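hi support,

uploading two proteins for the ticket. first:
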Amino acid sequence: MMLQTIAPCPPKAVSDRTAWEEAAAALRREQERDAVINARYKQAEADGTLTDQLGEEWSDSIGPVGQAEWALFAIPAPDLAALEWKLTLLRNSGMLDDDGQAERVIADVRLLAGEA
């Protein structure tokens, strides 16, 4: 069976890069916020000052990061780097088979983007 070539999307069908960039910025802010909480938690754990309140804050801090990741995922990828990010998120979330399929697709994206 011969595979058909898929024509590129016309420019109007390509995602709004601004929406992607805004969602990516929101994700970075959440990751930075989470990193601060994580550092405070690790320091408190190391010096024996960990409180239940900080433990709860630390435990809850990953939720907004996940929400920001999936909000970004919901936006159509404006380029191959965005598509690679989406595939990596799926792989890291355990949503792709663990038999190397995701790695092959990610490698293809990198090749098409001129990075391989």
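and the second one:
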Amino acid sequence: MTTGKKIKHFRNLRSISQKTLGQLSGINSATIKKYEYGIRNPKPDQLLKIANALGISINVFMDFDIETVSDVLSLILKMDEQLDMNFEAESTRTEVSIPLQSKYPLKTLCSIINWAYT
């Protein structure tokens, strides 16, 4: 489902018009319409305003299937690139190195992350 279709879906679930969503989010209703029809794609800051206006997490709009360590790393790099986030990490514990080509299940990765940062 496209971002625009998701916006429309959640807007309809709340039974609000494009105009009302525009007012709640501070975005012009014509722009909301363009997002819903796929004419334009919202920037991350606009998407956050829409998510907040709809009372949902911005993660609802993110399209990704995370099954491997490579998927997680790709997602982090994509977030860094698109949202201009600066990921930095320091650890006083022994580092756990996971090869990019490995196909560890996400559950294993989460266990490692929980162990490393608790």
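thanks. also noticed: The helical segments are 3-13, 18-25, 29-36, 44-54, 69-83, 106-117.
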